[in-house]
What does this fold into?
Amino acid sequence: MEVKTSLLDNMIGVGDMVLLEPLTEDSFIENLRNRFDHNEIYTYIGSVVISMNPYRSLPIFTPEKVEEYRNRNFYELSPHIYALADEAYRSLRDQDKDQCILITGESGAGKTEASKLVMSYVAAVCGKGQEVNKVKEQLLQSNPVLEAFGNAKTVRNDNSSRFGKYMDIEFDFKGDPVGGVISNYLLEKSRVVKQPRGERNFHIFYQLLSGASDDTLRKLKLDRDFSKYNYLSLDSANVNGLDDAANFRTVRNAMQIVGFMEDEVQSVLELVAAVLKLGNIEFKPESRSNGYDESRVKDKNDLKEMCELLGIEQSVLERAFSYRTVEAKLEKVSTTLNVSQAYYARDALAKNLYSRLFSWLVTRINESIKAQSKTRHKVMGVLDIYGFEIFEDNSFEQFIINYCNEKLQQIFIELTLREEQEEYIREDIEWTNIEYFNNAVICDLIENNQNGILAMLDEECLRPGTVTDITFLDKLNTVCAEHQHFESRLSKNSKFLTDHSLPHSCFRIQHYAGKVLYRVEGFMDKNNDLLYRDLSQAMYKANHKLIKQLFPEGNPAKVNLKRPPTAGFQFKHSVGTLMRNLQTKNPNYIRCVKPNDKKAPRIFTDSLVRHQVAYLGLMENVRVRRAGYAYRQAYEPCLERYKMLCKQTWPHWKGPTREGVEVLMADLQVSTEEFAYGNSKIFIRNPRTLFSLEEKRRGCLENLAALIQKIYRGWKCRTHFLLLKRSQVVVAAWYRRYAQQKKYTQIKSATIMVQSYSRGWKARKILRELKHQKRCEEAATTIAAYWHGTQARRELKRLKKEARRRHAVAVIWAYWLGLKVRREYRKFFRANAGRKIYSFIMQRLMQKYFLGLKRDLPSMSPIGGSWPTRPYRFLDTAHTELRSIFHHWRCKKYRSRFTDERKAVFEEKLQASEIFKDKKALYPSSVGQPFRGDYLEISKNPKYQKLSSAMDEKVLLADMVNKINRANGKGTARIFLLTKNNFVLADQKTGQVKASVPLPDLASISVSTQNDGFFALKLKEGSAGATKGDFLLSSEHLIEIITKLRRTGATAVNHNHLDIDISDEFLVQFKQDKVCVKFVQGAPKNGNGASCKRKNNRLLEVSVPSTA
It folds into this structure.
């Protein structure tokens, strides 16, 4: 495998957009698409990383990849998020520069995963040790806790962060993490009480109901059924790929690792349960005598259970939902709340309770992960914050989010320009001013303390009298009408009066990423974010210790009549603090891009990506980077990469590297306008110049490769010749020795042969004499025996003749007596009495025969050969016919019990009998063995899982066979698979398919008549598999393999049976040569069965043990 030494090696598309030529929005998008299609999800813009969400797992985040990018130059390897994390960590550790990593993008673009990857990489490359590992584990485990309470399923993302997070990771002087601090921004608390269609509430609610034990739910007075809670949407309660029960166990474990006590965890779960109960509280109207409507709680069961969870008196909380107390100086005024106001108070309490719980969690995590020592530490900040948002209906939340992104874009451009300018100054390169869009005017429109939109919104919220969203819009139309980035239908600017795309209740701001239309409805309420003081005081009265911490303003001893700061003011202050924090650190940027809205892999939607490229300001970033010199590289790697292009620098340059680069560029005749020399780097202005150098380098490398090949081949041939020369001398010496040994052996054999013939002749002569003497003695004995036998036969013949005479006399006398009796009694019988007696006797005999046959019927087994003997000779024909009829009947009964599978087995056994009976000595031993087919259990055995999944058809037979090697006659273990249309040979160890042959390509099968398992599969000439030749195999289940091959092959080739050649000698085609396979009987070797041995290039001899 080629080792990469530069970003430019084997580059798919352009790895750094700064080098893109020509630079247009279309070419920018096309380059992203090209890299995305090849699973290259990361692309650079200088030091900025563009990250495309692949929506699937890729093998680029393994521990091996971590080691590959560790301590490597940023541009040395392919673009990766690990390269940016490594560059930031090394700058922090080695140069003592505080770092910040800014991760931005819209929901679903992969920001949270990117922050996890950065943190996991830093945890992997920093030091080890018990205390260090504990800190790393706590930092990493804070993510599941915050995700459970701050993330939710949206239409764009199943795990969308609904808050902004900034984490400062603190390191000691060695670069080991010692702690951290987390800041959270603008939790989307409105999601607690209402979720858009197709979205869910925060994960923790579903995780608690799905994963908590029955005992825990009983203590929390909860039920697992989501439909029983008004705050939980039901249309997206279950999300594919999210296991809420398992995630709940992960969150509980993470809280334990971070340092939460068990009573703290229980308190947090009680507050989560209280929020769910709070959503089930409903109100009904009730009229009073004074004409005012007030509200009452419908069903007090949920209110009661909530009060029991929080330790609040039910009457106190019930009154807080029905009345509102307003204090002005020394006066208190109590007013009743109608039903809509009561629902507003309930939802406001739920949002504040959950929001403050989330802030308390962040504070509690910070207490656990903060650094123990008070000394100054190096800091790496990771910012995971929402990207620019443009929806069909944009409200206060989108306005605040887009304001934050305007500030981030402002600092991004400023820090990028500052970084470029510092590098130019450091390298003594002339700095030229770069023209770019400065969005400070937009930031000023929003945050100006005098006439900014946020300031006017706060002013309207604090102004006495009737204030509404429309009065706020009127004020904007008055103050901001002439601003070039503000548009409103009702402003003084006449050009928008006829703009029908701009509704009357909306205003539009031209952000750096495009125009966004904001609907003013809800701006005032969301900015006020009021919680009635009665509810705060009711919460403070709770016996629950955590509730008291969350609502300190409810303390009657510390009543503060000052209005709390608005949401906009708080967020503006937080953003200002964040910007000042980022200004003190060296920035690193990750721009996350979502390729499609379907959350599906391998889909790239041009319009969606183009939209994100615009609002992330990526094209503006590229133009800023390319305004001066597009590419820069240190002298040493530049000289190392291109030194082969100049004879003076190749192969080694002995002087300073800068002088070597100067000589190189002069020799290549590159225009001086295209590059500049810095103190430590060379700066190249145009990407075309760089690509020209790369093209020349590629051609030079090809020439160098040809030269190396030529030298190597010459050395190899010389070495081979010298080896042959030495071998010839050795071979000649060994041959002379062999010839003399052979001559001596021949003389010795001839002498022994002559001796053996001589001794044999003498022995045969003596044997003939002894045999003649023995035959003479035996002849006398034989003659005497024959004489005695003749005498005995004569005597026996005489005795038999005399016995026959006596028997004949007795028979004649018996017939005579019978005749006399018949004549005497004939007068007493009718003429046909004899026939009736005969018929009666015959019937009785037949009845007796059938009753005896019924009693003595043989077994129902079709192979049973027993049958009762016939008692009378006249029943011979009937006896035979009845035996045949009974046999056919019991065979029919036996067959009727057959299943299709068993019938197929017997058909295979029958076909095996037709093929091999009386033809193959191995056949009798296979009759009693059932045909199993799958001897390897390939579908169940995990060892062959990969091979089983590679089979498109059902496996009819799977067995282990030996493939015979022509070279030495030895066998190699192979897996033999038979399917409906193919047979396959696969490697025993790896399961890799070695050969797959269609059954129609199989011409015939050859086997021997001996008791062996060898068989040859012969392929048709001209078929695809015939180029490698036939297959000579051996198996313990030869009978079954060939039977199944013939049955399956007949189906595959339209009922043309395969030819089965049964012979002790047949030919096998091995590639281009035909080899004769001959079977002979011999003694077994080493206790084994048949063995194959190569006799010569044309003969393989198989020795089969004799069966005698």
